[in-house]
Specification:
single chain, alpha+beta, Cytochrome p450, five-stranded mixed beta sheet, three-stranded antiparallel beta sheet, 16 helices, about 45% helix, globular, binds protoporphyrin IX containing FE
Length: about 400
């Protein structure tokens, strides 16, 4: 998978970086690894890893790539390119203007009012999980909370049985992490085979769930086709699950070692929105990519049509050019630009839901367990993938 340097790549822009395992990841952790790489290199660099591609390392370069769908296409949005070519899911791999109708559909089903209406059931799910292990004074936070909570919320939204959740999570992992037991294409086909009959049933007998609403909606004078519906639902399941799971992991690993931060969050009561934004700034975790549409000059280099450029979204929020002392979690930050949810046409339509899931988790957890530490069997080693991840967060507290 290592590529030879193309003629248009200058020698002084070459770094030896696997974007899924940035240098020193094991030693200094995901965000510090990206911060170091950013501090030591130009805004745009090229790596021979993952079939050879550019990386936008500065916050400005990253933001420019994400916001400009004309110069940077989403048709292939994962490196290595040979894997990205198999992706093809809606709406992630569609450029504007064709992308727009699908987004209208997603936005209509994930908007703030809809999410507000789900808050009670999100809260009930959080309380149910926390109370299931509270009296033990110990939990495997990853397995007993983070991996269950967002998928339970999402399965309820689309009215799918919760018992299918582990299977879905496994397929989602196979599509976002190297070295799994199913290849990307196999896992995608498993999703399609599972969702195909469900889409047919929902069309015949619609319910009050998000999937039924999307199937019934008008997109430019027509309804979603079977293939479109299956693809859109697959993408939403992948995007809405692994991200929240791993984001919660980074946040709780941090909270376990920072009593002052826990106290500050508790003091905020129900007014957690700015604090949650600060956490999303600090813990960006998705690394995706774009395909260069035409030959262009960009941050001092020539990008050729067809070149891939990786966009590790973490680097915007932790760029000192945008946020001073960026690795510090400062709940009083007034303006904190970041790309944790991306930007431009593909900016995450699920961000309101994600924020609500995190805020409710913090409220209900800290209300019951204000003090906790990492347990001795915690394993904070990183798991490589499109979504940054810590292997296993186990926690303990006094009951
Ligand atoms: C920690 C939580 C989350 C993070 C960090 C996150 C991050 C992102 C990012 C960076 C993108 C942009 C991808 C691109 O530019 O190509 C994105 C897109 C997307 N996200 Fe999220 N996301 C989160 C939660 C969710 C949730 C809860 C849903 C619920 C369904 C969701 C659904 C989607 C979908 C469908 C897209 C594709 C949008 C498009 O291509 O137009 N995400 N997300």
């Amino acid at each position: 998978m290592t590529a030879t340097k193309p003629a248009h790549v200058p020698l002084d822009r070459i770094v030896d970086v696997d974007v899924y395992v940035p240098p020193e990841l094991e030693a200094i952790g995901f965000h510090r690894a990206w911060a170091k790489l950013q501090a030591e290199n130009p805004a745009v660099v090229w790596t021979p890893r993952n079939e050879g591609h550019w990386i936008a390392l500065s916050g400005a370069a990253l933001h420019d790539v994400e916001s400009d769908a004309e110069r940077f296409s989403s048709k292939i949005m994962i490196v290595p390119k040979s894997v990205g070519e198999q992706h093809g899911l809606i709406p992630t791999t569609i450029d504007p203007p064709a992308h727009r109708p699908y987004r209208v559909l997603l936005n209509a089903n994930l908007n703030p009012a809809t999410v507000r209406g789900m808050t009670d059931s999100i809260r009930a799910t959080a309380i149910d999980l926390i109370e299931s292990f509270y009296s033990a004074g110990y939990c495997d936070f990853t397995a007993q909370y983070a991996e269950i909570f967002p998928i339970r919320v999402f399965m309820a939204m689309v009215d799918l049985p919760e018992s299918d959740a582990p299977m879905i999570r496994h397929w989602a992992n196979c599509m976002t992490r190297p070295g799994m037991d199913m290849a990307f294409e196999q896992a995608k086909q498993a999703f399609f085979a599972y969702l195909g009959p469900i889409v047919l049933e929902r069309r015949a007998a619609p319910g009050e769930d998000m999937l039924s609403h999307m199937l019934d909606a008008d997109i430019g004078g027509r309804k979603l086709t079977q293939d479109e519906a299956v693809s859109l639902c697959t993408q939403s399941l992948i995007a809405g699950v692994d991200t929240v799971v791993n984001f919660l992991g980074f946040v709780f690993a941090e909270l376990a070692g920072d009593a002052a931060l826990r106290q500050s969050l508790i003091a905020l009561g129900d007014n957690l929105t700015p604090a949650v934004n600060e956490l999303f700034r600090r813990f960006g975790l998705v690394t995706i990519a774009r395909t260069v549409s035409n030959d262009i000059e960009f941050y001092g280099v020539t990008l050729k049509a067809g070149d891939m450029i990786a966009i590790p979204t973490a680097v915007h929020g932790i760029d000192p050019a945008f946020n001073s002392d960026p690795l510090k979690i400062d709940l009083n930050r007034q303006r904190a630009p970041h790309s944790g949810f991306g930007s431009g046409p593909h900016m995450c339509p699920g961000q309101e839901l994600a924020r609500r899931e995190v805020a409710v988790t913090l409220q209900e957890w800290l209300r019951r367990i204000p003090d906790f530490t990492l347990a001795p069997d915690a394993d904070l080693s990183p798991v490589p993938g499109i979504v940054g991840s810590l292997r296993r967060i186990t926690l303990r507290w006094d009951t």
